[in-house]
Specification:
single chain; 11 helices; about 600 residues; mainly beta
Length: about 600
């Protein structure tokens, strides 16, 4: 039996080597010094942070805040010194403009999440904060929401109802934006690591003012929460709420599509919550079966805990949100004392990889490097199905860092078509790694989409909730536009694809939460595209309201099943039934 197992292991290793050799190598270069970001060092105010929370404090947010087409970086300083906003100069360097932008504030900032909450076309910044106290207790109600007014920020958290995440405790970690009720504006979930478990909150966006609906809609909510994520795991178009949390308290809630009770507890139903110490999380279709999988970072110990999962959890979605945990069998369970993680196709081989940062400067985890888990995909052909495996890489890729890291985000800071990596180190320097794939892989093709929805569209800003399909050489690649991948951080809101070969995308489809679909044909690769949500009356997404749209509406007349994309597409006024009001809106938009 021992010899047979050894033979199987060798065979598996051989297959992995063949797959690995056929794919591009991942290669990064540390460009922190050249970029001008070397002047940043996280300096937390430990007296302002309650308990041991300073140990995992801080994050980063990336977006094009000034509308010039280049990603900028907001990063909290930690309390000793003011927060920073680094403007991308478009030449590989950054300049701190926090003062002129109105965000140079000294406070014990923690998590960062960026989105256009007021639907005015620019990206706002939400920051959880412990306040400015000096008694190691923090101050409740000091979270900050910076409304972006053409590159100048105004703090409005108190005005819109987002200053507090707990009434009398300073708690607040990561946050995620999502349109859970599909009304076209962005709601907010906030996690809070606390012994009371009361820091996990759900806020409904009611026209730019937020209402705390946690008690009414979420049960149970008590959890040592770290990272919330909105994503549709069941395939009905409505986002579930997932929560990565410490001490075996990770949770999941299924979206019921019922306005009176939009969520029900579904942790066991989905097969989630097996991670022992959930920290960060990311979402991707790792095995390309057409459903979003869910990766949760945790602690991997040399001596495994009895009866519990050791290390990270990889929940593979078989459909309808039903997950099977497969981290150990897939080779991505050991990321050390894991924190932040992001999924991205770093080597443009058509399979999404994982970058994970870790940190605990003691015992077996001291000086452990950060990792990239390269997705080796299936054995050829490209259309094969089945489990995937990962190869753990580190310094050999140029991603050479062994630090007390907490957060990691992806961005294309140099706009060359591949995704770079930015790492936040607690009580340490910021690190930027440039992806060299566009040169080392011989120029493997890529595609980037900026998915948008205007204030008059039926969909939420940034297209959050949309599913993007891209067909190249007969293979369908999918991305779920969502918020909440990472840890305490917010990556650049880009939809990125990499491909091993090809010059043209046969078809690109953006399936919007409204049920509408935008379709593009014969799109050249190595291109950055902007895709706008269709007008409300343009049911078929062809750019014009006419007879086809009328036919689609009449076919759904009287329909009330909001789990049907066809019904949602025809329900123009979002009142839950297809009828005369929807017909009136289509006729009003006729010919436009």
């Amino acid at each position: 039996m021992h010899n047979a197992s050894f033979a199987i292991s060798l065979a598996s290793f051989g297959v992995a080597c063949v797959i690995s050799a056929a794919r591009a190598e991942i290669q990064f270069t540390d460009v922190t010094l050249a970029s001008g970001l070397d002047g940043y060092v996280h300096t937390p105010n430990y007296l302002a942070v309650p308990g041991v929370n300073e140990w995992f404090q801080g994050g980063v947010g990336v977006a094009d805040f000034n509308g010039d087409g280049w990603p900028d970086i907001f990063i909290p300083k930690g309390g000793v010194g003011a927060d920073r906003l680094y403007q991308n100069n478009g030449n590989g360097t950054f300049t701190n403009v926090a003062g002129s932008a109105g965000v140079a504030v000294a406070h014990a900032a923690n998590g960062v999440s960026c989105a256009d909450f007021d639907r005015d076309g620019d990206v706002d910044i939400y920051v959880t904060s412990y306040g400015t106290a000096t008694d190691n207790l923090g101050q409740p109600g000091k979270n900050r929401l910076y409304r972006n007014d053409s590159g100048r920020f105004v703090e409005v958290a108190g005005t819109v109802g987002l200053a507090f995440t707990a009434p009398n405790v300073a708690v607040g970690d990561s946050a995620a934006w999502g349109d859970y009720d599909l009304d076209g504006d962005l709601d907010l979930a906030v996690a809070g690591w606390s012994s009371t478990g009361i820091g996990n909150r759900l806020f409904r966006n009611d026209g730019g003012v937020f209402v705390d609906v946690t008690v009414a809609y979420l049960s149970p909510v008590v959890s040592w929460g770290f990272q919330p994520t909105f994503v549709d795991t069941t395939g009905d178009g409505w986002p579930e709420l997932l929560l990565a949390a410490d001490f075996e308290t990770s949770r999941a809630w299924r979206n019921t599509r019922d306005a009176a009770q939009p969520f029900v507890a579904a942790t066991s139903e989905f097969g989630l919550g097996l991670d022992r110490n959930g920290m960060g999380a990311c979402v991707a279709d790792f095995d390309r079966n057409g459903t979003p999988d869910y990766y949760v970072t945790s602690i991997h110990a040399a001596i495994p805990p009895k009866g519990d999962l050791n290390g990270n959890a990889l929940y593979m979605n078989a459909g309808a949100g039903l997950m099977t945990e497969a981290a150990a069998s897939s080779g991505c369970d050991d990321g050390g004392w894991g924190w932040g993680a992001m999924a991205a196709d770093f080597d443009h081989d058509g399979w999404e990889d994982i970058v994970e940062v870790n940190g605990r400067n003691s015992n077996e985890w001291a000086n452990e490097p950060e990792y990239i888990f390269r997705n080796l995909g299936h054995a050829p052909p490209e259309t094969a199905t089945g489990p995937v495996s990962f190869q753990r890489l580190g310094a050999e890729t140029g991603f050479a860092l062994a630090a007390d890291a907490r957060s990691v985000v992806t961005l294309d800071y140099d706009r060359d078509g591949d995704l770079d990596i930015l790492v936040f180190v607690t009580s340490g320097p910021l690190k930027l790694f440039r992806n060299e794939t566009v040169t080392t892989s011989g120029g493997r093709p890529w595609l980037m989409l900026d998915v948008r929805a205007s204030s008059t569209a039926r969909n939420a800003p940034h297209g959050i909730g949309a599913v993007v399909e891209c067909v190249v050489n007969g293979v369908t690649h999918r991305r779920w536009v969502h918020s909440g991948s990472g840890f305490h951080s917010s990556a650049e809101p880009l939809v990125h694809f990499g491909f091993p070969t090809g010059s043209v995308a046969d078809t690109i489809r953006v399936h919007w939460p409204s049920g509408q679909t935008s379709t593009l044909e014969a799109v050249a690769l190595r291109t950055r595209l902007t895709v706008e949500s269709p007008r409300p009356s343009d049911l078929d997404g062809d750019g014009m309201t006419g007879a086809s749209d009328l036919g689609l509406l009449l076919a759904e007349w009287g329909a009330t099943d909001r789990g049907s994309r066809a019904m949602r597409r025809a329900d123009v006024d979002h009142d839950g039934v297809v009828g005369a009001s929807d017909l009136s809106l289509v006729l009003l938009g006729w010919g436009t």
